[in-house]
Amino acid sequence: MAIRVEVVRAWPRRVESATVTLDEPATVAAAVAAAGLDGAGAAGYAVFGERAEPATVLRDGDRVELLRPLLADPKETRRRRARRG
């Protein structure tokens, strides 16, 4: 049976999205490869916002998100803002 999956990569000021059809069992890695989006710059993957591994098995209608690396540590950024008042 075939499933449809959306693969999304969102960078600042740019969003790329592709919908792919894959045979079951399909994984995150297979979906990214089928979408043709370069996953090399991704810091990780998520399915509907939940962290996922490349071997995670997908279901029909899932949305795979390519995560970008953090530019700053969120905790440190909050500390700096708190110090400034």
UniProtKB/TrEMBL annotation:
**By its UniProt entry, which InterPro entries does this protein fall under?**
Mopterin_synth/thiamin_S_b, RnfH, RnfH_sf
SUPFAM superfamilies linked to this entry: MoaD/ThiS (SSF54285)
Q: Where are the transmembrane segments?
A: none
The domain of life for this entry's organism is Bacteria
Q: Which family does it belong to?
A: Belongs to the UPF0125 (RnfH) family.
- Its recorded name reads UPF0125 protein QFW77_09155
- Which source organism does the UniProt entry give? Luteimonas endophytica
Taxonomy-wise, where does this protein's organism fall, top ranks first? Answer: Bacteria, Pseudomonadati, Pseudomonadota, Gammaproteobacteria, Lysobacterales
